Please model this.
Amino acid sequence: LSERLSGVFDRLTKQGALSEDDVKTALREVRVALLEADVSLPVARDFIKRVQDEATGQAVTKSITPGQQVVKIVHDALVATLKGEGEPGALKIDSPPAPILMVGLQGGGKTTTTAKLAKRLTERDGKRVLMASLDVNRPAAMEQLAILGSQIGVDTLPIVKGENPVQIAKRAKTQASMGGYDVYMLDTAGRLSIDEELMTQVEQVRDVATPRETILVVDGLTGQDAVNTAQNFDDRIGISGVVLTRMDGDGRGGAALSMRAVTGKPIKFVGLGEKMDALETFEPDRIAGRILGMGDIVSLVEKAQETIEAEQAERMMKRMAKGQFNMNDLRMQLEQMLKMGGMEGMMGMMPGMGKLSKQVADAGFDDKILKQQIAMIQSMTKKERAAPQILQASRKKRIARGSGMEVSDLNKLLKMHRQMSDMMKKLGKGKGGMMKQAMKA
Ligand code: GDP
Ligand code: MG
Model:
């Protein structure tokens, strides 16, 4: 696939903005990549349509091709879809003992994942965990959990023959409260396919346990079936999250995307093997890379974009060193700050700016103020921006009105510009030119 793609990219070597044709050509290959990764057709189609609208007309970064740029846009959109809200890997396990209900089809990896998760909660989060198997259908199922428990040093509820799942769940709850456990995990029985009896049983257990988390464990290699299973369990039981197992296999992870797109439920963890520590927090970035299989292109584009930004900054530094610091420069600075999330970080990176940066921080610069300042500069004419000293009362009034601000706000902006430009001049003229030295560094 990568070869096929690079062929497409070679043909797309024009510079400038992404044309509709560029985008379409590249997306045709991306669509194939998604389907090969087992993303379901309607999900892939929807996704491509969204990216197409977003990508068309975007500027192409110098030194990469339009096709490469599209792949990066696709990658970022994939990450956004996979992520959803909330912290991946986070579980609601306050108010002990917090019940976690594990559900899914037989063979999906419920019992293994229950133990893996218990180990993680014990070792990483310092929780006291009790595990209970409610699988009265399969003869060896309860012993399986008990054995895993002793391997990882996590307690399991003693086995009492002849109980039904609801009775076991109640006993687990009592034992967890009396024993001072933080969490108790209920590993339910599965069926080979969804049936009424299974769902009714899980419903009853849910009503007894009122779980804080209901985790669906599903085989990530089963693609569309995994999504249907999730949909069914969510409709009947209500799930709070998903663990995709067998992500160590050959599958490209497309089930993750379909799962997110169709159910909207967070994928919390992925299973990466049979061993007890083969459970990892779900990382959208990694799965996106795997689905596309184009990680090299993504990092290439990131690199190119960084270079461009560095070049821009250097050009501005050069102008500033010569004492040329007009309103256009200030605007660029303000926009950078907005992007970088604060003035302090930006100024902190420039030598000799530490003190000013603190003043600026104390003055309470936030996004809103930055945006207002940019709006004021936008209301200036080209001439005014190049030479702000020509601003007298009537021009000021016009600019303030044009940007919905007061003349006093504009005066503050002009004062800041004056101070900054004085500082730049001083730095530029200083011994050997501090700015020049900084640029060499
Ligand atoms: P359950 O029926 O849902 O409880 O499934 P089990 O937990 O008994 O798992 C069924 C089989 O899948 C076992 O052989 C597990 O070792 C294996 N398994 C579970 N999770 C993973 C995983 O993430 N990767 C791999 N390769 N195997 C797994
Ligand atoms: Mg099991």
Summary: The chain has three domains: 2-85, 98-282, 322-440. The first helix runs from residue 2 to 11. The CA atoms of residues 17 and 59 lie 4 Å apart. DSSP finds 20 helices and eight strands in the chain.
